Structures are given as structure tokens and as C-alpha cells.
From TrEMBL:
Signal peptide coordinates: none
SUPFAM superfamilies: Tryptophan synthase beta subunit-like PLP-dependent enzymes
Organism field: Ravibacter arvi
Protein's recorded name: Pyridoxal-phosphate dependent enzyme
PROSITE patterns per record: DEHYDRATASE_SER_THR
The keyword Magnesium is annotated on this UniProt entry: yes
Swiss-Prot/TrEMBL cofactor(s): Mn(2+); pyridoxal 5'-phosphate; Mg(2+); Ca(2+)
Amino acid sequence: MTFPTANEIDAAHERIRPYIHRTPVLTSKQLNLLAGAEIFLKPENLQKVGAFKARGALNAVLSLSPEERKNGIVAHSSGNHAQGVAYACQVAGIPAYIVMPENSPRVKIDAVRGYGAAVSFCENTPQARQKAADQLQHETGAVFVHPYNDYRVIAGQATAAKELIEDLDEDPDFLLCPVGGGGLLSGTALSAHYYAAGTRVIAGEPEGAADAILSFQKGEITNAPFVKTIADGLLTTLGDKTFAVIQEHVTDIVTVTDADIIETMKWIWERLKIVVEPSGVVALAAVIKYKGLFRGKKLGVILTGGNVDLGSLPF
């Protein structure tokens, strides 16, 4: 496997730059006191479509030739990748066909349709998602863009950590992000490797979807023993491409409970006045839970998304 190179990540950044926000770096003295560390937050909840997923989707779609693009794009996603692909297809002026689980948050379904995509629904299992996407691809001739197990997507996601590294005066000791399918984590790890060689990368994962930590420990892709978490964006398992990068370039994976996630989410809403979804706060929840690991260190933390169903807040 040939991982995306620094040149490919640089090219991805140039390709998507006109269509994304360069999200700011946020700091909080109260947060630094709470965690006992110097924390720099990258709020991708303020990104186009409300999540970092716009980066990978744009890079994947805009990397295709006009001939490849002409029949549109098929994707499956519970929400943020769906919105990313729908937005990327709107930018490219091509059709988007999105398969979403029937229990996807209404706010995410409405947003996907708002970008002009055609939405169809399936049972919420990986097999049902892929089967429905395969059927759509067969019917339309569209190109399938995987939510994370695609090097073009990974290179796009890597641009979030690249920006964070560029915007800090010196390289952080650690970069942290959540892990679901591993697209952001593998991209973050590659950016640290290329642009901040001394920086270690750690992922946070919900206890209720703990497949990445088991895979990391066993050295092979392993399913979670049970799946039940409020962090609905992190329910996917690793792909072979993402896992290979994670094995080589990630220092560790740690888990947090739903209670940790909810408490951190509430703290961010109350103190930082920004809207972050449960999946989006998992890395920061890990910093607070394991603060002994990070005491006195300089941390970059990616808040990954802010697409919350306001009708079902956990607090």
C-alpha cells in the first residue's frame, strides 16, 4: 500500500481551498486549567457542511476527471460524509446519490437534501448500506466514494491537521482526534508525520464502539464486542487503508464513556459557546479523562463536527 504523500496532501489542500473554511484555532484558559495542558482546538464544526468531512469529499470528487464525474457520485453515510459528498457534487455541478440509514438524524437528512442530493434509505447495517450503494451505482453509472477507506478522502481529511500545525507557533506534543472509520485519524497521523515529525497522534474512541482500539491492540481489524453509543458518527469499523496508516503512525487509542462525552459536550456549549455534536467532542473528552498523560504538554485537538439534532440533546 502506498500512503498519500506530503505532495498529495499539499495538492489536496490547494484543490479544496476555494471551497472550504480555514477554520480558526481556539484557546480557553478555563480549558487549560481543567486539563492541566495547553490546548489548541481546531473547530471543524464551523467547517462547510458542519464537519471536517467536506474536506475529504471535496478532494475525492474534484480529483476525478470530467469523464469519471459525468454520471455523478454515490455514497453511503449516516450524515456528515453524506453532506460532504452532496456539497462536493453541488460544487462540481454533478448529481449526488446518497444512501442513509433509516434512523439517521433528521437534521442530517434535511441538510443532505438541501445540497440537492437524492436520498434513499436502508437498514442501519454496513452490509445494507453497501448493498444499496452498489445497486444505485449499477443503475446510475455513478462513481462510489467511500466515507473513509479511500486515499483521496484520507488526503483531504489530512488538511485539517495540516492547517492546525501551520497555525501554531511550534509543533504540538500531541495531536488528538476521534476515530470511527479512521479517515480523519489516518490523515491526521500522516500530517503529523510529514509536517511535525516530533508530534505524537492519539485517538479517542467511544467505549460503545471500541473496534479501533481492539484492532490496534490485536494487529488485525476486529469488530467491537458491542455497539451502543451516543456518538453516532463513530459507529463504523476501520478499513484496510486507514488501519494500515494507523498501525504505522498512531501512538495510541484510548476510550471514553458516553457520560464523558456528554459532560464534555455540555462544557463546550456552556463555556466556549459553540455547537459540537457528540462524536465531535470525543478527542477532547479523552484529554480531560486521561489528563495525567498530557499534563504540561501542548495539544492540538480536532473538534470534528456540529451537526446536532436539537430536538434530542443529551442534556
